[in-house]
Write a structure and sequence with these properties.
The structure is a single chain. The protein is an alpha+beta fold. The chain contains 16 helices and 5 strands. Strands 1-2-3-5-4 form a 5-stranded mixed β-sheet, with helices on one face. Helix 5 runs antiparallel to helix 6 and helix 6 runs antiparallel to helix 7. The longest helix has about 90 residues. The protein is elongated. The two termini are about 85 Å apart. The relative contact order is 0.06.
């Protein structure tokens, strides 16, 4: 059915026009006086045929042919309708049906209104003695049109409207049928897209789960490697310096691989392409963007910069981004933020202080409570993954965040190692030699267990 309607929608109007013209020529062949050119209904038939033929392609042109016919008859430029061919007017209503089927909504209203006016003019032309002489239905009214229009005008106008309404209803029904089919196809397409989206969502969730599991496995394994290397290094008394350096290299490599694995897993998109990760050089653009968001940021830097690993740079950027976002979220527009980066210590030290909002101070007496959410644990985790630590909390009228990302450590001498072995104070040794947090949290029983495990493996 759909292919047939599609064909009729495209070629129905020209075919109907050809049939309309042919039938009228056959029906009036005996009344043409021997020649179609001398027949009084030739121009009305041509104009109505053109109105039907162009209804589906050019609705306004079709209406123009109808208007031209009526204007020509009112001005006596064209012959009026007589009793044998007044029904040529119905071609206008046939074209109306095609327009209501194929034209846009706005043109449909224009076509309907034009045909209502045209029906009134047609009724006047057929009843007025000056034009149609009553078209053979009624007695001639040479005394005037008043009584003829008063008695029969509304009846003829209603008849024409009824015919026009029937043609319009046919066109609207065809349009509604095709729109219904389009809605069904759209619904099927939406259901198909929904199924595909659900499949994509399941795949994405599975990818996320795999990435999370992969990260957990790598984090655990690399952390164990780093801890074992550090523990063996500080528990070995008489090992050569080359062995100690090798253990230190193993620990450094494990931590670096841990940070890089975190960066790669976070940076891979669903399509498998790696997105560019932010670096320290992007902090300036971040600050400028947040200042345009009505934050007042005072940024400063001290000390000679030191090259950080890619994962560490990304961690610093994300922490700064989260701090500024939290300041805008909790403090609102115009919040003052001070940001300072210090390169003079054993690592990059980041200080961020934002003024607490009045609502935070006047709440339940605990400003930190309103500032606690997912942001601070996330920043702490990033700092930890980068080998550093972070503290955050209210300090008077400010909320301060302090982050340390180490980029170097003192090399331990054999005498230092001997002192550590003699005292057994591994926590102090971790602080003395600036060991990464993964080792600083290991207690003496944990170190002894590592020594015991290393002895068993040896």
């Amino acid at each position: 059915m759909e292919p047939v309607l599609k064909y009729v929608r495209r070629w129905g109007a020209p075919v109907t026009a050809a049939i309309f013209f042919s039938l009228w020529c056959v029906a009036e062949a005996g009344r043409m006086g021997g020649s179609w050119l001398t027949w009084s209904g030739n121009w009305p038939l041509v104009l109505m045929t053109l109105a039907i033929a162009t209804a589906a392609w050019k609705p306004l042109v079709s209406l123009g042919f109808t208007v031209a016919l009526l204007a020509g008859q009112l001005s006596h430029a064209l012959p009026p309708m007589y009793s044998n061919h007044w029904a040529i007017y119905l071609g206008s209503f046939v074209s109306l049906g095609f327009m209501l089927w194929t034209a846009p909504a706005r043109l449909r209203y224009i076509a309907a209104g034009t045909n209502v006016v045209a029906a009134a003019i047609m009724a006047f032309l057929m009843l007025s003695w000056r034009y149609g002489d009553g078209v053979g239905w009624y007695r001639p009214a040479y005394a005037g049109d008043r009584w003829m229009l008063q008695d029969y005008g509304w009846q003829l106008f209603a008849l024409l409207l009824l015919i026009a309404g029937a043609c319009a209803a046919a066109g609207l029904l065809l349009a509604l049928y095709q729109e219904r089919g389009s809605l069904f196809r759209a619904r099927e397409l939406a259901q198909s897209s929904l199924k595909e989206t659900e499949i994509d969502l399941i795949v994405e969730q599975e990818r996320t789960r795999i990435a999370r599991d992969l990260h957990d496995v790598l984090a655990h394994s690399l952390a164990v490697i780093a801890a074992q290397a550090d523990g063996t290094r500080y528990l070995s008394k008489d090992q050569p310096k080359a062995v100690l350096n090798a253990l230190d290299t193993i620990a450094r490599s494990a931590r670096s691989a841990l940070v890089d694995a975190q960066r790669v897993i976070e940076g891979v998109r669903d399509d498998g392409m790696v997105t560019p990760q932010p670096r320290l050089s992007d902090i300036k653009a971040l600050i400028e963007g947040m200042q345009r968001g009505s934050l007042t940021i005072h940024a400063s830097e001290s000390g000679p910069p030191v090259e950080l690993s890619t994962g560490q740079q990304m961690a610093v950027f994300r922490i700064v981004q989260e701090c500024l976002t939290n300041a805008l979220k909790h403090g609102g527009r115009g919040t003052e933020v001070r940001l300072h980066i210090d390169w003079s210590g054993p690592g990059l030290t980041l200080h961020v202080a934002s003024v607490l909002a009045g609502a935070d101070q006047a709440g339940d007496g605990n400003p930190a409570r309103t500032r606690t959410g997912r942001g601070i644990p996330g920043m702490r985790e990033r700092a930890h993954m980068a080998g550093g630590w972070m503290t955050a909390g209210p300090d008077g009228d400010h909320f301060r965040v302090t982050v340390l990302i180490p980029y170097g450590r003192r090399e331990a001498s054999p005498g230092d190692l001997a002192d550590v072995a003699a005292t057994g104070d591994f926590a102090a040794a971790a602080e003395r030699f600036q060991i990464q947090p993964i080792l600083a949290g290991i207690s003496l029983p944990r170190a002894a267990m590592l020594e015991r495990d290393a002895g068993h493996r040896g």
